[in-house]
Amino acid sequence: MTTLEFSYSLNKLSKSLKPFALKLTRDSDDANDLMQDTVVKAFSNKDKFTEGTNLKAWLYTIMKNTFITNYQKMVRRGTFIDTTDNLHYINSGSNMIENEAYSNFTMEDINYTLDQLEDVYKTPFLMHFKGYKYHEIAKDLTIPIGTVKNRIHIARKILKDELNIYKTKS
């Protein structure tokens, strides 16, 4: 495969790598960086590509390995090593002190939001949360099982919307 053919194939396939990069990094800028690193590595190692094999799979492998390597570098950068005779990690879990203030605020917000729910949604939701099965809730509340599922779904949606401040980056 000539350099021109390889470059054309690489350019054509690089668009299909973007969703995979986004899935790995969960950030658009990091995904673009990963894409760029992958294309540079692929082009600089084009002599290692065996013609007739799957170029797309080869690119996916390069991207995955690049992501893993970058992640490992980032973790190593964040780890401080004590160089005394004991040689232990300063930021190991046994030396961390947890402050429960954040989780207390979170629970207060969750309980407040639950209290604001109408009883028709709150009761089935809390029963399901406590471990009751749908059919048990339907029997106890004398409502159809579909209604139980719908009310639990609505309660979850309301909680999700009201507590969106706690949504994690994804």
Automatic annotation (TrEMBL):
MF annotations from Gene Ontology: DNA binding; sigma factor activity
Any one biological process term the GO annotation gives: DNA-templated transcription initiation
The UniProt record lists the keyword Transcription: yes
Gene3D superfamilies: 1.10.1740.10, Winged helix-like DNA-binding domain superfamily/Winged helix DNA-binding domain
The RNA polymerase sigma factor 70 region 4 type domain, residue ranges: 111-158
Superkingdom, taxonomy of origin: Bacteria
Domain RNA polymerase sigma-70 region: 16-73
Pfam families: Sigma70_r2, Sigma70_r4_2
Keyword entries, A-Z: Sigma factor, Transcription, Transcription regulation
Similarity remark: Belongs to the sigma-70 factor family. ECF subfamily.
PANTHER family referenced in this protein's UniProt entry, alphabetically: RNA POLYMERASE ECF-TYPE SIGMA FACTO, RNA POLYMERASE SIGMA FACTOR RFAY-RELATED
Protein name: RNA polymerase sigma factor
UniProt organism field: Anditalea andensis
